[in-house]
Sequence to fold (59 residues):
Amino acid sequence: MELAVRHQTTYRYATPANQVSLLLRLLPGRLDGQQTKAWEVTVNGTPVTDFPLNAFGDG
Fold:
């Protein structure tokens, strides 16, 4: 079985935000018998590639 998942989150502010800090938890999990073929996260069209793992191995 193959699944395709698309998630979009949109934030709107009353006034433009100069800086925003968010906790992003969209990294696919690692499970036996499953594999991720491809995935990407973008912000305003720019790919995000730096996902440090926490103590639990979550990105």
